[in-house]
Every structure is written in structure tokens, then in C-alpha cells.
């Protein structure tokens, strides 16, 4: 092959986005007539999730897919989609790819030294899981030991009086089972794939954060690619960006059905509950986000304009 | 085939007596240089291998073992074990296997199990007249139970990568874990019974003697109980249990035994740092080697080869277990899971192989990996605590490796050994 | 004489490093027990402990390895070499020390390059500490340097000093 494109990502092979990426790879190989050979290294087999960014920037591997908040405070503006109840309306999610907001973030990434290829919408529904009693009203969270998401979003949990705990993912299942933690917060499909329903009776479905996996490549490698091959990449990336939206919606719906079928008692937050949680949870996270992000207000305005 | 050429190279390099971490590191680095033309970023990979919260169990359980040995808590514990089984052939060996199994219910790591029980049991077995290689064998083999009896670090990792229920995997590990414990115990008994110089058997202890022995080791026995109860009652996680256990041992050594001071604590911390450094450098080097194998797509190609054979489920699993056994000679358990599972998974789904069953087969095979030379973490662990020659340790563990292969065969032939308990629990 | 001096300096450096490593062991012990206590008794989890423990583990290994090397030989497969005569064993030791110097030197040089890259890139951890990654990564070149020093001193003793 004229070029080899190796992509590292942390998702297990059965993850719906991992499957889409396999399709993306096949599209590129066939559309380029085999001139690009794509090799996918999933499930952290080549690089661990936090290492992907530097590995791509340094050219150890050509491409990676990371969750947008993997950029943490390296590019703090990338956290914008996980701000509580901000970008969880499906219409706005549909308008995000190709929007000025997306372009702004792509520019930020380019300045850091990676070329963004695709935004893969992965989740807009999370679930608060618990064993002893459901977490419906904000008062229910008081004193609850919950595994949070990261320092930024955990501000929202603190705002409702919960005690967020950080814990490596592999420990969470047993911590929920034994009661080291009272509650979990995770993406809806992950609650199913990680088998939380085995150890948690209740689940409150909430549109708290939108999560994207994004595919990015090494700029030097990209520049050396023949222009027509770059077009092949762009076309396949546009396709996967579009395909991710119905795929994620379907995966979430399936997860909801499966969780119920497995006996989990699910409650979906009503519009009033969402409004009430937004009032409490959004301000402190927003404040922390703006303090950490030099261009925080700019991306917020762009996103609000979607 | 390039795969076997690489493995031959590793064997030659390691047999030449270089430190394992430089040997593995140089082969991995050399392959990377040959395939990529540069080595940039290797230290980032090493950093990533070491910066892993779940490895905390190694220094903490080492510390706990040092405290228990230097604080003489262990002397009482073994005196009690000896009192209880002194009339049986291989009694102390059986006691060690059972100690390993019990500790495995606390620890998710086999290295930590071999380290803690080994530091404690080997000197005692030698004292009671066991041959060195026999003592090393019991601990090396028994220590592998750490990852089969829940909790288990490798099971969690496999569960996450393969989307398999960790609870079901834990349940599925219980009966095979007890089975292997029983097989090892029977072996200890027979080994001593038919040895040319069996260890001395003594008169069965009287009830009052037993009671007295139990009373003397009451404090020592509270340690594993405390850790187990705390873990299952939701006070701390399996990884935290290592640190809490070490702290509890420290408290007992200082307050009850009054045999431990700041000076002893500092010495224990220094020893723990040295042991951890030696073992974890090998983990990191094995990680680099595994990373290079993955980027060369060697596991992918071999799996494709096996799948292409067109054999049935048992044929496929046998070939796969053979491959993992070979990888297990050179790689560390975590690396093997990360490298093989994503590659094998699609084929397994296609063949409708139960992922829980496969997970248990994988873990038994990983137990083998811990004791097969040249790279066997339990071998190195025993070497680190005894300074014995590897050949002597290997001689001791060979029978246990054979018994593990037998157990693997049993679970493969009778999947219900693994699957009965999770199925019953689910109903 | 030179060999003895080098030996003493190396021993002092390695001892200082392993003291830090032992400090890291005790720090892990205290941090974990403290965070368990805070979470269980006071319902106040300490969310940065798991990240800090990860860096302490790297510190234990990179700062403790050189002293472990000096304390005896590093873990090696001695199935063949233990059958060798004293001359063969000496050659094996020298080869082993040279390999440690090679790997240590590599960790030093490549480690510094990685630190420099991460610094320029501005990579920060995603955990609660949100620390600039090049800072804990300095442990890798530091460990490489220590391994090189320890192996060099042993090599001097083996080749210059009196034979054991
Ligand atoms: Na275990
Ligand atoms: Na092995």
C-alpha cells in the first residue's frame, strides 16, 4: 500500500462506535483501491487511552479515536460538550458537525498539532445508578458516594450534595457491588455493557452530557498523503460522522430496553426535573469551565448558536 | 515464521543470563527499531505501564509480608498450621496451598499471593525439613491461585475488554479455584508420601493442643479475616485491601507483638521498594515487548491462521490455548489479555463460545504463564525473596504446571465446572 | 583507588534514591488508608489519591531499581549461566551490566526527549491533579541515569578493582 493508517482506540470490539470505525476502515481501503491500508488497534492493545493523543502528535501511530474530554485541561475548550444539560438536544447534535463550533475546536486541535477527521457522536444520555433507593430528586443525592466523571463534571455532583469519588474503571463494578460506592454515573450503553444492572437496582436516565469520540491524525502524515487520498479520508469521515448519530441513538434505545429487561428499575428525568437539575448543576461547572478555558466563552457562544 | 524467530531470539537472549528487564527491553526495542526505524516514545509506554493504580497490590502486599515476617506474626501462624496438619504427609505443604487459596480470596494478583505466602511459608517449610525445590514449587504453584479465585485483576481486565460480566467470571472462578486447590493439596500429600526422604510426621495434636495453638495465633488470624470482611462489606476495594492489610499487620506487630518499631518499618519499606522495582521493571519491559508484537500484528495473523484451519470449537480452543501458552512463556498476564482478547473475540462470537467459559480457560492458562520459564513472574517473585537459582525453582513448579494443564483440560472437557455456579446464581 | 571512589559515590546516590522510593511506599500506605478512612467514616472521598498513587508507583520503580541492582544481581534466568565457571560468570556479569548501561542510557536520552515533547505539547493529566505530564515523566530519565550510574560503578569494580 501507498500509505498505512494505523488507528488506536480504547473501545472494546463490541462497542457500537468501534464497529463503525471498522466500517470506516473498510470504506477507506476499498475507496482508495487498496492504496491506503488501515489497521485498527482497539481496546487499548497498542496504546492506553491517555497515551493516544501524544502518540499521534509525535507520530508513533498515525491516528487515534479519543473521547473529547480526554483532552482535559490540555485543550480545555474540548470539554464544552460535557457541560451539564448543554448539548443534549438531538437537533443540535445533528447540526454540530460542520458547524462554526466544530470548526473552532478543530482549529484548537490543529494548533496543538493534530488534524481532526471526524466527530463521532457517542452519547447524550447518562444514567445515575444506585442500589438502595433511586436517585430522583436533587435531595436524593445528599451524602451519596458516587463515582463521577472527571474533576469538571464532578462539580455538578458536589452541587447536589453528593460525594464524588475517583476510581479506576476496572474497580467500579466491585465497588458498586460491595457498597464501597453508593452510586454510579455512566453513559447509558456503558451501564449495559459493563453489566451495572447486575449490581444496581435503580437507574435514572438523564441527558446530562454529550460525549464524542473524535478521530484525529498526525499532521505530517496527513500532509504527505496524495490529495486524492485525502479526499478519500474526508469522504469516509463525513460518512461515519453522519452514521454515528442514528447508531448511537439506536444503541441507547437498545440499552434502555435491555436494562429494563434485566430488571433494572429505570426512571427518565422529566422536563421539570431536567430544568431543576440544570439550575443546580450547570452554574458551578460552567464557572469552572470558564476559569480553565481561555476561549471558553467563545465556544459557548458558538454552541449556543447552533 | 517471524513469530517463532522472535521467540527463539528472546530465549537465547534470556538464557544468556542478562537481567530479564534489559533482555526483554532490548529485544522489544530492537524489533521496533527494525520495523519503524526509530524508538521515539518508548519511555512514554514504559511510564504508562508503571503508572497503573491496580499494580499497587505488589508493593503493599510486599510490605505486609515483610511486616508479618519481621514482626514474627508469621511464626505463630505457621506453628498453628503445623499443629493442625503435622500428622499428614506433606502437611505443611497442604497448609501452604490452603494459605495461598485463602489469601487469593483477598488478593487479585498472583504475584502478591506468592510474595506474601512465600516470604512467610518458605523459611518455615525449610525449617521443618522440606527440600528447597519442593517448598518453592508449592508457593510458585499455589500462588497462581491468586488470579483464579476471586477477586482477580486479570478477570476484571478480560471482562472489560470482552464485555463479559465480571460477576459471572468471579462466580465461574470459584469451583475451578477450589478444584485446583484440591488437586495441588493431594499432590503435596502424594509427593511427600512417595518421596525418598519424606518429612517427619508427628503424632496427631490433641484437641487442647489445637485449641491452644489457635488461641496463640488469634491476632495473626484476624488479619486475613479483617481484610476479607472489609472488602466484602464495602469498606474498601480489592486494591485498597492491600494497603489496609499492610496497615493492619503494622498495627498488630506494633501493639500486640511489640516486636516492631520505626527502624523495622523503614527496613520493610526499603525491602518493599527494592522488590517492587525489580518485579515491575520486568512488567514494563514485557509491556514494551507486547506493544511491539501488537504493532507488528503478530497475534492478529496467528489468530487468522488458526481460524483458517477450519476446525471445530474444541480444535479452535485447543490451538488458541496452545498459542496463549507459548505467549505465556514470554509475556506477562496483563499484556496477554490486552493483546489476544480483542483479536480472538470476533471469532469466539462467530463460533458461539461462551465468553465466561473462555475467560476461565484463559485465566488458568495465565496461571501457567506465571510459572513457565523464561518469563514467569512467580518464578521471579520466589527468586526475589529467596535468591535461589531459577533452575531449582523451575524444577519445583514443573509438577504444578502439569497439574494446571490437567485442570485446563478438565474445564475444557466439562464446561460446567466453570459455568454451573454462575448459571445457578443467575436463576 | 578510582574504582573505590566511584563505588562510594554511586552507592551514596543509589541509597538516596531508594530512600525516596521507600518514602513512596510509605506514602502509598498512608494515602490509601487515609482515603479509605475519609470515604468510609466521614463520607468524604479524596478524589486525587488514585492518580497520586500511580505516580508514586513509577517513583518506586525508577528510584528503587538502581539500588536493587547494586544489592545483588537483577532477576535473570540463570539456568545456563549457573553451570559456568568463574570466568564465564564474570563475563555474564559484565555483559549484564553493559546491557543495564545501554538500557539506562536509552531511558535517560529518550526519556528526556519525551519530557521535552510533553512540555512543548502542554499535555496535562485528565485526573484530579491535572498535573503537567512532563513532571512525573521526569522519573523515567532519572531512573535511567541511576541505573547507568549503578551499573557503571559495578563495572568499574569488576574490571578495575580487585577480583572477588
Ligand atoms: Na484472587
Ligand atoms: Na511464563
Automatic annotation (TrEMBL), chain B:
<feature type="transmembrane region" description="Helical">
    <location>
        <begin position="94"/>
        <end position="122"/>
    </location>
</feature>
<keyword id="KW-0813">Transport</keyword>
<feature type="transmembrane region" description="Helical">
    <location>
        <begin position="6"/>
        <end position="33"/>
    </location>
</feature>
<protein>
    <recommendedName>
        <fullName>TRAP transporter large permease protein</fullName>
    </recommendedName>
</protein>
<feature type="transmembrane region" description="Helical">
    <location>
        <begin position="241"/>
        <end position="257"/>
    </location>
</feature>
<feature type="transmembrane region" description="Helical">
    <location>
        <begin position="397"/>
        <end position="421"/>
    </location>
</feature>
<comment type="similarity">
    <text>Belongs to the TRAP transporter large permease family.</text>
</comment>
<feature type="transmembrane region" description="Helical">
    <location>
        <begin position="167"/>
        <end position="190"/>
    </location>
</feature>
<dbReference type="InterPro" id="IPR004681">
    <property type="entry name" value="TRAP_DctM"/>
</dbReference>
<dbReference type="InterPro" id="IPR010656">
    <property type="entry name" value="DctM"/>
</dbReference>
<comment type="function">
    <text>Part of the tripartite ATP-independent periplasmic (TRAP) transport system.</text>
</comment>
<feature type="transmembrane region" description="Helical">
    <location>
        <begin position="53"/>
        <end position="74"/>
    </location>
</feature>
<feature type="transmembrane region" description="Helical">
    <location>
        <begin position="134"/>
        <end position="161"/>
    </location>
</feature>
<keyword id="KW-1133">Transmembrane helix</keyword>
<dbReference type="Pfam" id="PF06808">
    <property type="entry name" value="DctM"/>
</dbReference>
<keyword id="KW-0472">Membrane</keyword>
<feature type="transmembrane region" description="Helical">
    <location>
        <begin position="302"/>
        <end position="327"/>
    </location>
</feature>
<keyword id="KW-1003">Cell membrane</keyword>
<feature type="transmembrane region" description="Helical">
    <location>
        <begin position="334"/>
        <end position="351"/>
    </location>
</feature>
<feature type="domain" description="TRAP C4-dicarboxylate transport system permease DctM subunit">
    <location>
        <begin position="8"/>
        <end position="416"/>
    </location>
</feature>
<feature type="transmembrane region" description="Helical">
    <location>
        <begin position="357"/>
        <end position="376"/>
    </location>
</feature>
<feature type="transmembrane region" description="Helical">
    <location>
        <begin position="277"/>
        <end position="296"/>
    </location>
</feature>
From TrEMBL, chain C:
<keyword id="KW-0997">Cell inner membrane</keyword>
<dbReference type="Pfam" id="PF04290">
    <property type="entry name" value="DctQ"/>
</dbReference>
<feature type="transmembrane region" description="Helical">
    <location>
        <begin position="129"/>
        <end position="153"/>
    </location>
</feature>
<dbReference type="InterPro" id="IPR055348">
    <property type="entry name" value="DctQ"/>
</dbReference>
<keyword id="KW-0812">Transmembrane</keyword>
<keyword id="KW-0472">Membrane</keyword>
<feature type="domain" description="Tripartite ATP-independent periplasmic transporters DctQ component">
    <location>
        <begin position="29"/>
        <end position="158"/>
    </location>
</feature>
<feature type="transmembrane region" description="Helical">
    <location>
        <begin position="91"/>
        <end position="109"/>
    </location>
</feature>
<keyword id="KW-0813">Transport</keyword>
<dbReference type="InterPro" id="IPR007387">
    <property type="entry name" value="TRAP_DctQ"/>
</dbReference>
<comment type="similarity">
    <text>Belongs to the TRAP transporter small permease family.</text>
</comment>
<feature type="transmembrane region" description="Helical">
    <location>
        <begin position="52"/>
        <end position="70"/>
    </location>
</feature>
<protein>
    <recommendedName>
        <fullName>TRAP transporter small permease protein</fullName>
    </recommendedName>
</protein>
<feature type="transmembrane region" description="Helical">
    <location>
        <begin position="12"/>
        <end position="32"/>
    </location>
</feature>
<keyword id="KW-1003">Cell membrane</keyword>
<comment type="function">
    <text>Part of the tripartite ATP-independent periplasmic (TRAP) transport system.</text>
</comment>
<comment type="subunit">
    <text>The complex comprises the extracytoplasmic solute receptor protein and the two transmembrane proteins.</text>
</comment>
<keyword id="KW-1133">Transmembrane helix</keyword>
